Structure formats: C-alpha cells, structure tokens
Amino acid sequence: MYEIEITKKAEHFLKKLDKNEAKIILKKIYAIRENPFAHVKRLEGHKLWRLRIMDFRAVLDIVISGKKIIVLRIGHRKKVYDDL
Question: I need a surface site. Which of 3, 34, 44, 84 has the fewest CB within 10 A?
Fold first, then answer.
C-alpha cells in the first residue's frame, strides 16, 4: 500500500473548496493507495501523473521504490496544468 503525502499547495486549494467537494477529492485520492497505476495517466512531457476527480485534477508524483504518492497540486481541469 502506498503512503499519501499532500503538499501545502494542494492543501491550500482544498481549504478553498466546499467541504463536500474536498471530501470527495480526498476520498478518491486515498482510494488509489492499493494500485495507483490503474487509476492515473502519465502527463505528456513530464514524469508526473494525473488523477481525474469530477472537474478537478490531481497532479501526482509516484515514488515506486518508496511506496509514496505525493499530491503536488489539485485544481480545476482547465487551470491545474498551468506553470508545470
């Protein structure tokens, strides 16, 4: 099972959201701990992954050797990839 680490930037976005939306996003992120590669897609041109959650996306860095999923940012699907 992979360990989940959420960055300050992702936490900040979650705090601005409605509590129900934030709960759904966190539930989906924690649901992929067993087998993350069945749920994510690789970002073109990066060593990062994306997870679709409604109209939002979570940009992830998955460390296979350390069994860790780092949530780098969460955002609306239109804006989350800016500045990557």
Answer: 44
